[in-house]
Fold this sequence. Notes:
- The chain is of the alpha/beta class.
- Helix content is 28%, strand content 28%.
- It contains two helices and six strands, in the order E-H-E-E-H-E-E-E.
- It has a four-stranded parallel beta sheet with strand order 2-1-3-4, with helices on both faces. A two-stranded antiparallel sheet has the order 5-6.
- The longest helix has 17 residues, at 8-24.
- Mean pLDDT is 80; it is low at 87-108.
Amino acid sequence: MFFVGRGIDYAVCLEGSLKLKEISYIHSEAYAAGELKHGTISLIEQGTLVIGVLTQSELYEKTISNMLECKSRGAYLMGLTTYNYCFAWVHFSYRTSSTTQSAECSVD
């Protein structure tokens, strides 16, 4: 299982990976999404879960692009975001919630 994010999202990924290891004893790693092309992408194989953290609007598209690279290698994608976006070409499910609204989107 891999967590990927850029900027402050990378710090969230590091913490998320650590908490997953502490609570469930499942191996996971966190990587900066921009560094995937520098060798890390070779670790992605069929059926690997990749969790992308997407909370910064200026980095959203770049992180989605990195996640799609993982998908092309057979990874399952999960996105955690604070935005209410639903792109038909992404093919992952996510849930967004705020104090004013909650939305679910599942894309095929």
